[in-house]
Amino acid sequence: MQPRQQLLDIWRAQVAYSWRAPEAGGKRKAWHWGGRNQSDAVGDAQQLLCLLYPAQELPELNYADPDATSDAVLEAFSGLGDAVEIPIRIMRLVRDYMERHVDDEGVPVYSGGSNMHRKDRTQQAQPEQRAIDVTEGFALAIPLCLTSLAFLQDFQPTVDRMGRADLGREVDQVQTAIHRRLLGAITGLLRSFAVSTFDADDDFGRQLIALINVDGQADRKIVRRFRENADDIIATLRTITVGSGGTAGVEAPTKLFEIGWSWSVVEKAPDIPDLSDTSTQRPGRAEDAPYLYFTVVALEAIQALFSPTVMRRNLLSEEEQRLAQSLQLRMDVTRRYWAMVASFGGGSKWPLEDVPWRTTDGLEYDYYSLLVCAVATDTFGASRGGDDDLIRLGDVLVELANRGRITRRALAGDRAVETHFPGVKAELAGIEKLDGPSMVWNMVDFAPLLLKRLYHAAGLLVTIEARAELLEVADLVWDHLARRRIREGAASRLWDQPKQVYGELGHWFEDPSWHFTIRVVEAMVLAAQFASSEPARSRSLEDLAHELLVEAEHVFDQELLRGSGHAGPALAQEIRSVGLTIRHAKEVVDERPGTAFALGVKALIDLDRLIAAGRDAATGV
Questions:
Q1: Model's pTM, two decimal places?
Q2: Per-residue DSSP letters for 226-239?
Q3: 34-52: burial string, b at 16+ Cβ within 10 Å, e else
Q4: DSSP string for 144-188
Q5: Which of 23, 173, 339, 428 has a CA-to-CA distance to 297 between 20 and 30 Å?
Q6: pLDDT tens for each residue of 59-95
Q7: CA dihedral sign of residues 564, 565, 566, 568
């Protein structure tokens, strides 16, 4: 896969597509915002993150310091200028984004714009519908702001060395705009959190019971078990007092519920009190019910707030840190809830394993199973006993690759192809109250999201065989994605061209989808980080290596006792070399037992040869 090389190729292709002269015939190049969709806060954030995210997650790809930028990175960005011009232009792209996506009063907006599609194409969408803030806009703003702040922090020493006061003032202004957008995004996620309650005998309740009742028990027993399993979750919900959410009626003994993030600020969501800037707290419009897709993107954004880089660099202000703690509470309880539902009953079969996942509004898609995997993976890996649960989750991911016609060929008229294009649709309940048509959000990122989940789960696994299986499937998913790369035209080497894999599709695209491309970039970053991590350790191999080294060290001591170490210079040097080999093997045995085992075998072979040579010398044979 060569993820670092793939990221460099994406940068090269992105610069070629986006940094170009205006179509009107002008010669001066400028950045072209947008791609397959028109420019909006969501799509432009994805486009900009393709540039910023890899550089901050993989230090060898960082370009903020001209003196430390590698030749490969300079070549990929050569269209933007030299080592000094590149970070200046990137900084000004960040500034342009921050200035571009504000309302008439200069307040940041987080709108989805052209990502929202009308259910009824005969009706015209209202401008107020297109302009509404969406949860994905809040979620994207967080990694965008964090990577921008880290980039500017790395770039600041260069600005100081250059002695350019104008550039220093520009950096300060951009940082101020970034923090304003970041604060608005955090408060937006706090006000988009949803808790939906329903009775066991209404439509939603019956759907949830049918989903989790894998043992065929009486409904009342399922309700009782659900309530028992959810005790800690309900207790945590009681502590949510900032923004939307809270218990919202879940404490009634006969109630069932779901938690997560809605598609936008929920209707009647309270304002966050005591903020330094309240301008981004617009009225809520969304139904107070969680959406799996928006829950996943919100959780990934919140996790970014607590990354080691953010903590080490102290990127957040005190106010942002305080509000982030409230988001962390929501993140933890949401993960626990969906892990509980996904593995309800804990028996021989989980609801998650009964693919496809069925939502409480009666929709069934493999994509929903993938989203539940995304929410539950960390809980399964951390607090649920390790590899046993992760292996079961990994089996679901492997099945999803098959069912999604990624590792198997698609049949004629196969419904699975719809998952890739036009994608799974989520109706944005509540947006029609703005005197316009009902709108939907298309989700077309099944393949790159699956690749991300495979690497995420593999990185948490210790069992070598299970990890190897996931990595083998990950290679096949990457092969699938590589075939969907646009091959010609201005968008060459970017994504997505699904017709190249699924020939029955009618659409052929000339422009890139930044929504899809950023998902591939995120998967490549995960793959690069995985490749840089320590290899999985086999417990049995580790034990065998320890035992082998005990024998090698014992034989080595015997040779020293026989005086081999005081023999002639050549023999003494060989004995010392064997001793160094054994010592090195003992140093790495816990981290790399396979390497230690190989070194131990080499030491024993060398010792056996020395022993045989000594025996031959003694007998004269």
A1: 0.89
A2: HHHHTHHHHHHHHT
A3: bbbbebbbbbbbbbbbbbb
A4: HHHHHHHHHHHHHHHHHHHT-HHHHHHHHHHHHHHHHHHHHHHHH
A5: 173
A6: 999 999 999 999 999 999 999 999 999 999 999 999 9
A7: positive
